[in-house]
Amino acid sequence: MQSIRVRSVVMGVALGSVLVLGACNTNKPADETVTKAETDGVTTTARVEAIDSATRDVTLRWEDGVVTTYKCGPEVRNFAQIRVGDTVHAMVADSVAVSVGPSQGEPVAGTVTDVSRTRLGEKPGMVVTSTALLTARVLAVDSVFRTVTVRGPAGKERVIRVKPDVNLGNVTVGNDVTLTVTETVAIWVTGS
User: Is residue 183 part of a domain?
Assistant: First the structure.
């Protein structure tokens, strides 16, 4: 599906970008938390070209002309409501929030996913939101080589390169760097 950009967020790579954001570029004291959030998203639509009820396959023609067939599993509630000519809307949005501040305890990592579906009898629709949280402890700050060394929840140490516009004076050994990544995918069907 070329008209939808879906970004994979790999926590190790995302942590590498934590201090690359020009986010924490204020002159806050080391005992205060500095946060920056960035959001990005895209939406697109497709037309239902064909439906195979026996196999639960739906063929869609996307805005860019690409035709793709998808198998709809049992989690697609109200499959029988889909008709040829219906419009399928898809939206992918993600946001990244980065905070640098005083330690709140041991580094942690976790993910929470929430799924909402349409009610019985309505056209199919679903919203899936996944939020991942990762904290790492700052072990060293090198302002000459513009790097920060952190230790994540698994005990692994990582050296992160920092963009020139980030004020490293805001990052202190012992601070926590917290990365919160939220991805939302919404798909819903409307009549033709």
Answer: yes
